[in-house]
UniProtKB/TrEMBL annotation:
GO biological process, one term: purine ribonucleoside salvage
Pfam families, alphabetized: PGM_PMM_I, PGM_PMM_II, PGM_PMM_III, PGM_PMM_IV
Domain Alpha-D-phosphohexomutase C-terminal: 401-473
Domain Alpha-D-phosphohexomutase alpha/beta/alpha: 4-146, 172-272, 277-387
Source species: candidate division WOR-1 bacterium RIFOXYC2_FULL_46_14
Keywords tagged on the record: Isomerase, Magnesium, Metal-binding, Phosphoprotein
UniProt family annotation: Belongs to the phosphohexose mutase family.
InterPro entries hit by this protein: A-D-PHexomutase_a/b/a-I, A-D-PHexomutase_a/b/a-I/II/III, A-D-PHexomutase_a/b/a-II, A-D-PHexomutase_a/b/a-III, A-D-PHexomutase_C, A-D-PHexomutase_C_sf, A-D-PHexomutase_CS, Alpha-D-phosphohexomutase_SF
Cofactor: Mg(2+)
Record-given protein name: Phosphoglucomutase
Length: 477
C-alpha cells in the first residue's frame, strides 16, 4: 500500500489518486484501532454525558460527504457509532462538537486551504485540538502494520448498511461563541461588513452571526463550489482581490474571509488593504490586553516579532513553538493563554478550544473595530506608531529532496556569521534554521515535510536589511 503520512495538520492527497475510498477506509481503520488501543471507550463511558461515539465532519470539497459515510461504516465495524454533520461544516465547529457531545474525538475530511483537487483527513482527539505527534505516529504505525484481515474488514465496511445519524451543530455553537464576543458593542456600532467564505464551509455561519449581531452584511462566493472558483480557498492578499475591490466600491467598514474549512481568516480594511495574519494577531493581542486579559501569549517560530514587542511592553510571558497549531495547542492546554497564533492564519484564545478558529478570529476583529470606534486602518496606524513597522515576507524554494536535505544540513552545520553586513546574533534549530541578526531582524528556513520545497520567512523593521535577507535567500540554491 502507499505510504500515508500525516503532516502538520493531517493527511492530504489528490482526490481519486492517493485520496480514494480504499485509502480513506484504511486511515479510518487505523484511527479506530488507535481509539480501541487507548481504551478511550471505557474512559469516556465513565462520563454520564459521553457516548461510544465519534464526530465526523467534512468541508465543501468534492466527494467529502461520501467519504464521511465510508468512515462511519468502518467505525461501525469497530463497534464505534458515528455522528455526521448535516452539511459541510467548519473544522473549528467539528472540533468544538467533540467537547460539546463528550465524544471520543472527531474525524474531519478537509484539505483546508489546499488546491481544489485535494482532500484530507484530520483526526481531532477528545481534547478538541489537533492530534499531537505521539497520536499521529501511532495512527501511522497502525497503517504500516495493517494486515490483510483488517483490509478485508475495511472492504466489508464499504458494503455495510450502517445506520447513519446526523446532527446540526450550528445553533448550539452560535450560543456558545457569544461568551467570547461583546455582542452589545457590535450591535451598537452597526458596521457594514462584506464577507467572502471563498465557496467554503464558512457560508451560513459567519454571515449569519454578523446579521444576528446587527451588522449590515453582504456576501460574495457564498455557495458551495468544489472548484472554489478556480483558485485555492486560501484567504491571502492575491486570492481576495475581489473582496478588496468591493469593500472600497461598497464603502464597507470591513471585509472578512475564511478559507475552505473556516479555520483560517482573512481581513481587509475599509480602504481595501489586506491585513495579513501577523498584523491581525498582533492587533487582536493588543486589544485583548487592553481589555485586561491575563495570561501568556504563544506564537509559532515563523510569526512576527511584533507580538514579542507587545508582550515585553506589558510584561507578558511569550512562548515560541514549532510551525503547526498543534504545538500552540499543547501550551494552551497547559496554562492560561491570552492568544495563540501563527502567521498562516490560525488563532485561538483563552477559554476556547485549543484549535484555530477563523470564525472567532473574524468576530474579534469586528468587536475590536466596534468598541474602539476607529477604522481598522486607524487601529493599525496606532499600533505601528507605538511599536514600529515590521515588514514580513514569506516564500518557497522548489528543489529536489536531495538538495533540500543538503541545504538544511549545511545551514545547521555552518550558519552564516553575517547577512548583508549585519552580524548574526543567534541561530535556532528547533524547527528548520532560524537566523536572528543583531538588530532583531530574522530569517527562518525550514523544509516541507511532504514536498521537495524549502519554505522561507523573514522579517525586519529596516527595508534595506529586508532586501539583503531576500538577496541571501536567492543565493541559497
Amino acid at each position: 500500500m502507499e505510504v500515508i503520512k500525516f503532516g502538520t495538520d493531517g493527511w492530504r492527497a489528490i482526490i481519486s489518486e492517493e485520496f480514494n475510498f480504499e485509502n480513506v477506509r484504511k486511515v479510518a481503520q487505523a484511527i479506530a484501532t488507535y481509539l480501541k488501543s487507548k481504551n478511550l471507550n471505557s474512559k469516556q463511558s465513565q462520563n454520564s454525558k459521553s457516548k461510544n461515539q465519534i464526530i465526523i465532519g467534512y468541508d465543501a470539497r468534492f466527494l467529502a460527504d461520501k467519504f464521511a459515510i465510508e468512515i462511519a461504516k468502518v467505525m461501525k465495524e469497530n463497534g464505534i457509532s458515528s455522528l455526521i454533520t448535516e452539511r459541510d461544516t467548519p473544522t473549528p465547529i467539528v472540533a468544538w462538537s467533540v467537547k460539546d457531545k463528550g465524544a471520543l474525538g472527531a474525524i474531519m475530511l478537509t484539505a483546508s486551504h489546499n488546491p481544489p483537487e485535494y482532500c484530507g483527513i484530520k483526526f481531532i482527539p477528545d481534547y478538541a485540538g489537533p492530534a499531537n505527534e505521539e497520536i499521529t505516529k501511532q495512527i501511522e504505525r497502525n497503517l504500516s502494520e495493517m494486515t490483510n484481515d483488517k483490509i478485508q474488514m475495511t472492504n466489508k465496511s464499504s458494503k455495510s448498511q450502517a445506520q447513519i445519524e446526523h446532527f446540526e451543530p450550528r445553533e448550539h455553537y452560535f450560543e456558545y461563541i457569544e461568551r467570547f464576543i461583546d455582542v452589545d458593542a457590535i450591535r451598537k456600532a452597526k458596521l457594514k461588513v462584506l464577507y467572502d467564505p471563498m465557496y467554503g464551509s464558512g457560508r451560513g455561519y459567519l454571515d449569519k452571526l454578523l446579521q444576528m449581531y446587527g451588522c449590515k452584511t453582504e456576501e460574495i462566493h457564498n455557495y458551495r463550489d468544489v472548484l472554489f472558483g478556480g483558485q485555492n480557498p486560501e484567504p491571502g492578499d492575491k486570492e481576495l482581490t475581489e473582496l478588496k475591490r468591493k469593500v472600497v466600491e461598497g464603502k464597507f467598514d470591513l471585509g472578512l474571509a475564511n478559507d475552505g474549512d473556516a479555520d483560517r481568516f482573512g481581513v481587509v480594511d475599509e480602504q481595501g488593504n489586506f491585513l495579513d495574519a501577523n498584523k491581525i494577531i498582533a492587533l487582536v493581542f493588543n486589544y485583548l490586553v487592553s481589555k485586561g486579559k491575563k495570561g501568556s501569549v504563544v506564537r509559532s517560530i515563523a510569526t512576527t516579532s511584533l507580538i514579542d514587542a507587545i508582550a515585553a511592553e506589558h510584561n507578558i510571558k511569550l512562548h515560541e513553538t514549532k510551525v503547526g497549531f498543534k504545538y500552540i495547542a499543547e501550551i494552551m492546554m497547559r496554562e492560561k493563554v491570552i492568544i495563540g497564533g501563527e502567521e498562516s492564519g490560525g488563532l485561538s484564545i483563552d477559554g476556547h478550544i485549543p484549535e484555530k478558529d477563523g470564525l472567532l478570529a473574524d468576530l474579534l476583529v469586528v468587536e475590536m473595530v466596534a468598541k474602539s470606534k476607529k477604522t481598522l486602518s486607524e487601529l493599525w496606524k496606532d499600533l505601528i506608531a507605538k511599536y514600529g513597522t515590521y515588514e514580513f515576507k514569506r516564500g518557497k524554494i522548489e528543489t529536489t529532496e536531495e538538495k533540500k536535505s543538503a541545504l538544511m544540513e549545511g545551514l545547521k552545520k555552518s550558519p552564516p556569521i553575517e547577512i548583508g553586513g549585519m552580524k548574526v546574533a543567534e541561530v535556532k534549530t528547533t524547527d528548520g534554521v532560524k537566523i536572528i541578526l543583531e538588530d532583531k531582524s530574522w530569517l527562518l528556513v525550514r523544509p516541507s515535510g511532504t514536498e521537495p520545497i524549502i519554505r522561507v520567512y523573514y522579517e525586519s523593521k529596516d527595508p534595506g536589511i529586508l532586501n539583503k535577507i531576500a538577496q541571501y535567500v536567492k543565493g541559497l540554491v
